[in-house]
Structures
1.
Amino acid sequence: MGSRLELVAETAEEYRKASKKDKGKMLDNLTKLTGYNRDYVCHLLNLCRGKTMFTRQGDRVIRARADFKLRRRRNRKKTYGPEVLQALKTIWAIMDMPCGKRLVPCMEWLVPRLEQVGELSVTPEVRQKLLSMSASTVDRLLSQERRKLAGKGRSLTKPGTLLKHQIPIRTFAQWDDARPGFTEMDLVDHGGGNTKGQYVFSLTVTDIATGWTEMRAVKNKAQKWVFEALKLIVTRLPFPLLGIDSDNDSAFINNHLRRFCEANKVTFTRIRPGRKNDNCYVEQKNWSVIRRNAGYARYESDKELELLNRMYDLLRLYQNFFQPSMKLESKERDGAKVTRRYDQAMTPYHRVLASDYVEESVKAGLTQVFNTLNPAELKRQITRLQELLQEESARPKSLAGDVAVAQSASFT
């Protein structure tokens, strides 16, 4: 053991004076001679000063000469102090804790917006630092604040075979993704792990081009309720509905939806059985929008249905006007390595404004709505409804049903 450490110590002075290329060769040679890991050899070389000798005590390597000195660590002044971090935490919480690559592109319009509505008050110096911060810096500063919970999803799709031969199959690459109006839709169950009885589902519709997402809770998977929710969602879209793509669930593969699409000249397609990636745009919203906000509890009462829809009415504004997302532009494979390139993060609202297919009058109307919204207030209201929903779901279902009957009787 001693001879290997001596060899490292004797090479240290030459190693410090060598070029980068020569250092690599020296590391390779020492790794072969000593049997040490390359990183460990590099660590020992950086600890050495002159002819310093090493000894080992247990698993630790210690110096043998009194004049051995560790390399000093530079005490560089922090660029982003506690006041910047506190402001960043506030913005991060308001925006529902996005990653740095999604948050940084929004800072240019988000910081002035929060200052305008009175949710953020910072000095000009702090403001400048917030606007000039990189995505990696944001992630590093917020690394201690990240606490995420991930749940395991379930699929309760039951195939509808009656009209499958009349509805064409669409694969991932067959639609024109550049034009708003081509959407994907899916149902998310709120059975809480128990599929018995009647319980609430959430219908999610996502536009492929812009990421604009609408959601609506329905009392069950009956075609009647799903179709009514879809008709309401169509009226809320800021562009004409041109196409619908669904899975093979019987809630979608039915005459109601087929006749609606034929009457309104809407393209109706379905994914290949067992190929969830065909519906990837809406599938990713099932967790990022529905599960993160509605959770995994069981909802079955009318009160819970009402609370969900009240939350979705606010969530559609918060999600579409203030939540940025990145779209995959290209994917290249080189052997086992896959390189993905994404565009700059933008909110669905800003993607609609950038689209040439949307009328200017519609864009002006959306801008008026945007100017009236306070993202922090929307977040607070959504959180309050989540708390009420959690309280309601925790109550015994029989008691919840009695309360619902009593409320309906009082209104009549």
Note: Residues 302-322 form the longest helix (21 residues).
2.
Amino acid sequence: MELTLVLTHACNLGCPYCYAGRKFGKRMPKELGERALDQAFAKLQPGEEIQVGYFGGEPLLAWDLLQHFHLYAEGLARAKNVKLVGTATTNATLLTEERMDWMAAHGVVIAVSLDGIKESHDTTRPFVNGRSSHEDALRGLQIALRRAPLTEVICVVDPENVAHMSANLRFILDQGVRVVGLSLNYSGKWNEESLAVYERELERVGEEFIGRFRAGQDIYVSVLDSKIVGRLKGGLKECDQCSFGLGEVAVAPSGNMYPCERLVSDDADPQWVIGHIDQGYDTVKLAGILRQKHHQDPICSSCAIKDRCVSHCGCSRFFSSGDLADPGAPLCLTEQLNAKVADRVAKTLFWEANPVFMRKFYWERDLAGALAAVRAEEAPVLVAQG
């Protein structure tokens, strides 16, 4: 189960692609957040797991609330004998050693938003006053990495910065980062020209991926790893897919509930509100939203990559097309390119018998057989990890 608490609508950055809407200072009341946590934990059985996410705006602007709610959740977890995982997505400009130490000690895993090289980052992630946030974000990232070496960096890919995509990835990896989420802004102003740039840059991302594995580095790059795993599994499984509105709920500072934190925005659009903490779920409305989400476009049904495409994500569909049931051109085209490059990368490293690649993507017991098959230039049937 996933519960996301939107701690505040405020943010200290002015990102032009942000889906969080207007930035204002409304914070989540402590009593409301506690009720949300009480209701979520009440549904759990001993031994189960809950992920509680702290979101915004910028959640570190409400650091006191993050600490309060997580300590409250820890108490509930002990009482119910369930596993608690905390998460927070932050721009890292307000991250300090003390805050990072506290989160690491309490099991709060953070993801840092950073758009790569200074030129790219400053185009899309300036402070609200227009000043560069690059140095502050890098400082925060290094604090996170010292305490949590597998901290993920989320790098948004937008038409405004897509020309820097491969340089951004290289820069981020050079900071010591091993996990990179290249997150497409599907609602950006994508056109034929910018998609062509994306294709060119994605090929360079693939070469960077190959080069890092050849150098003995085990890295994760979302747009490639997910497609490789999807192919090895014979398609993404239910556990890999979006839990939109069912195993996942986001709560705004007002108490309104949403099927995903990406749809909360500034809490001004009632079309995505699926209930309120005080009144419970609007089951009729939720059922209607889920019907749209599970609709499969006829074009998708005949697509070669349909079983490993992120079109299962309702939010991605909506931001790509404006329609929860329609994947839209930006999502569809970039996913096909991602699969094409991922397959090329995987084939290259597999036939090279790259040991880092083989250990990452195949069970240890299949490693010797896989390597022998490569040397024999055969096409082995392997059992995928995961």
Note: The longest strand covers residues 83-90.
